[in-house]
User: What shape does this take?
Amino acid sequence: MPATPHPARPESATGDRPATTSAVPRRRISRRGTIAICLTGFLGLVFLTPQLVAWSPLRHDLPRIRLPGYPGKITVGSAWLWWWGSTELHDVQFDGVDGAPLLTSRLIREDHGIWARLVRPDDPVGVQVEQPAVTLHLRSDGSNVEDALTPVFKHPKQRRRARTFEIFDATIHATDAQTGRTVEWNHIQAHGQLVPDGSRPSEVHLAAKLDDSSVADCLQLDVTYTSTPHGLPNAASPWNVAVRTNDLPVETLTPLLHRACPGLDLTGPVSADIRVGSEPAKSAGQPPHFSGAWQVKTSDLKTAWPRQPSDERTALGQTEFSGKLSLDGAVCLVETFDLKSPVCRLTGKGTFPVNHETASTSGDASQALANADFKLNGDINLVALCRTFPHLVPLRPGTEPTEGTVTIDVASRIEGGKSKWHGKLGTSKLEALVAGERIAWDQPLNFNVDFHLEPGQLAIDRLECESDLVQLTGRGGNDFLHLEAGCDLDHVGSRLGQFVDTSHRELHGKIGLVVDFKRESPDIWGAEVKGTIDNLLIRRQATTMVERRAGDIHPIERPPVVIPDRPPPILAPGRRGMQAQRRADRQMRREDRRIDREVRKQENEVVLVPVQEWQSLWEEPHFEITCRTRWLREKDALEIAEVAARSEGIRVQGSGSIDELTGARRLGLNGEVDYDLPRLLERVRNLVGPHVQIVGKDSRRFSISGSLRSPAATPDVHPLVPMGLAGSASVGWQSGDLFGLAAGPADLNFELAQAIVALQPTEVAVSGGKLNLAPRLLLDDGPPHVEIPAGRLVDGVALTEEACNTWLMFVAPILADATRTEGQFSIDLDETRLPLLDPLSGDLGGKLFVARGQVLPGPLLTELGEILGNFLPGEGGGPVRDWLGLDRPLVQFEKQAVDFELHGRRIHHSSLEFRVRNIVVRTRGSVGVDQTLDIIASISLSDEILKRSPFLSRLQGQVLEIPISGTLRRPRIDRSALGKLAQQFGPAAIEGIISQGVQKLLDRRNAP
Assistant: This one.
């Protein structure tokens, strides 16, 4: 049988082996290898995941694990994140809410890795921070750090872990937003442990120094406390705080001080050792035991108070303040209390009860209560106070205090099982030298209060103030307090005026005040206040210029009669000698009469002299104010049930509340105002003058809201009202007369924001034109100012006699006492800012646009006419009245623009041109607010006048300039300028003047 051939074996791809022999084994290795590779890759990925996260942009969010809810941007330069070992973040930067850097750190290290966090979540965590730098911006209502961390504290956390921390070489840059001053603390070292569950005490230790300080650690802080389950300090558990400073420059704390007292500026070294703390109560139900001891010393301490010039500082001298006390919740033991300074001295020692009920249940406290005897006494040296703080007491110029002391006495004793207190604040005799004269005030003030404590009750037995300035009496108990006060402003002004400078302001009237407090519930107190003011008069001293006869101001010295060519007396005169003697006598008599005329002329000359007069700012026969409020302690709010003010001409009534009393103090007040404008204007008539008349009577709504503690907008700003307040109100009238401009109906809407009261742009129809109003009252810094925006203020208004004679005459003097007015004018103002209380002392500028018109002028043209009448002939060389006319000529105005500006209490104007009897006159110069003139009248003669006389031909093309002084009502030509004017006319003018003078003399002699 033939052999069966074997099938051919396929060759492998490589030609070595058939593919069939290794196919199955290779498939098995591929699956296992794939599984192994995938498993290895997965394990490797898991192993490297922490570092991959550290390399990715996710590293920027790693700090948010510890700070959930942080609102700012966080940047991490590089990170090391592993399953085991420590976690490190390098070059970390936290930005604040405003986007500015808040904290930067070179390294933040945490000693736990990811594995430890997963398997041991409750283990303490150790954190090290190297070279952190904090940029702190402090405001009166907060800081950038508080803005950034508040959302973190409010964010819910599932678990709070105990941790230890170490901070190395930290730096804090603190900037005061009010003044812009920056201080830097460096080389700050801190360490401690935070235990949020309260299982053991938390500790914080901090030491810091300054580069320019020679002291190793000029500030040390040690804090120990126990936390509540929420992570907050537990007041019922033991806690201790220790602060030590050694020659600490107090100016480095300026940003923090301004949080409590804006504007206070201190410089100088301070050394302090302050230790306060508490211990657990000895028995259940008793309050913890509190103790404190302190010792503070200052030397060369200087201060600058708000409103004090920045280059002036007050030296406080060496001050020492020390004390030691303890409080067990029932009895307070004061071992020592001493305050010594150049201005005051206080010393106290003894025991006084705090809680009778607790003391009665404690044996030790009960024994201490039986021996309670506390005394505090001291004095304030008023002479040293005035010398140390001259800006706090505005003494009259030339006043030097020589004697004065304020004594303070407080005492507590147990009498009949009751704790009785007596307090007395009195002043000794005050003496001072005022302009070398000794002035004394025997008993200025004595204030006494007696009250006693009973279990759960306080009773005021006596409260009174003995003084010839103010009278105060009161009584009260645990649930009520009643106070009555009265004050005679006339007596206050006369008394205080001996020592304090009241020469520029005066207050007159009587004030009455009744206040009642009543507790409605343990958390609600109600208050009702009623005040009255009768015959109120507020006035200030102002300087006005009045006309007086020169001879009444000071006598005019009469010069002796001197005849240089008088011959010597002749003993035996002949005929010629006697004639010469008679001629000399006649000459002497003529000279004597001439001197008499000159003296009388000088004596009768009207001059302006400054006179101090009292100007009434406000007069009020009767004013009444009432207020009913409720203090809600749980809500931290003051409910204003009603606030009302009433007087003749106005009634204000509103209600609202003040929320967050211990914080921002947010006010919300809405109400209604009933007003009668004519009656209100009469209250301030002397201030606004007689040229403002308004007819209006209405009822309007108003509202005020915002924070009463908002910070100033910029450094060194002291607003008169809180910057955070906002409000709105309105007023309207039916008709009015505003300085000669007849005004139609108007409705004015006011808005308050950022301490600025702004009138919404309003257009008022006045005298055929319109008045554009948009002023702002600035109360944001210093004395109030009125700001007027640039633009058209008066547009196309008719020229009226009253407008000319009240205010236009200061810009155009020719309009003084003008009548028969005709024409229109407009006014543009530059941006203007004027003091509210004295607007004429400010600066302003603008343009007066005069349309074609005419007026019948007053004294200024009459004075010009008399001078020119001496030089200019009339028609055909006739008398001067041919030029002036039988009546005063009308002054013609062409269309023109006049620049004007107010500064130095004078209104300066550019060239104002007008035409009268074919003569062109231009005036330029200034008019004082006291109506004094300092102007120059430039006169151009027409060809018609020049043809009247041959000697006037030489004046062709020339301008005659005449200086004018005096006042608007009594202008006076400078007589010294007449010679220069005659020189312009030439010798022929003198000839003409003489001929006119002879003709006038003949006319008088030939007159019947």
In short: Residues 825-830+842-1008 form one domain. The longest strand covers residues 606-632.
